[in-house]
Give the backbone structure.
Amino acid sequence: MQKSTIQFLLINCFLAIVMVSCGSVTKNYTPKKLDKTAVEVPYFADSKTDYVYKTNISVYGNELSGIFIAKKINDTTHRIVFTTEFGNKLMDFEISETDFKVNSIVSELDRKILINTLKEDFRLLLKKQYSIEEQFENESSEIYKSKDGKRDNYIFISKKDQKLEKIVHASKTKEKFTLFFNSENNIFAEKIQIIHQNIKLKIELNYFKSE
């Protein structure tokens, strides 16, 4: 009986913590009148360019380094290849808004949870246009809300220089993961970070400058 009572109390405490920690993602944003119905993302949009980045993936304390290559192969689809620094192929995907194809993957990385996570990350990274239904602002950014299935994407555009700074993928109450962009000209991103809030996963892409 005592054990059951303790379990009951622990479950209720956990639920209370969850309820307290949950709140509207937009609670710190100020609503404003919508000034556009779509946001275009310029990164990864040129079909003539091979986008090559040195990559570091950190997952639960384990580090994996290599080269990330993204190529727009038609109007809707990108091909993504991830290799070691010595050129050995680790993953090869084709991804669009509606389709996802694994061309190849090494057995050590062939795990459904990893593939599904990368699919979600890269789909957002390579997305060209966001349809906007609400707009907010904070001190430094214009914030555009775009519906994404049962979740939402929040696109942050700097008020200072009109550059895309980050995209937050979130449920109604909680941020799931965030893409951060550093760009000198708002056409090409020199550095990209993908950071997950609910799992210990971080992907960092740094533009590869050939000598």
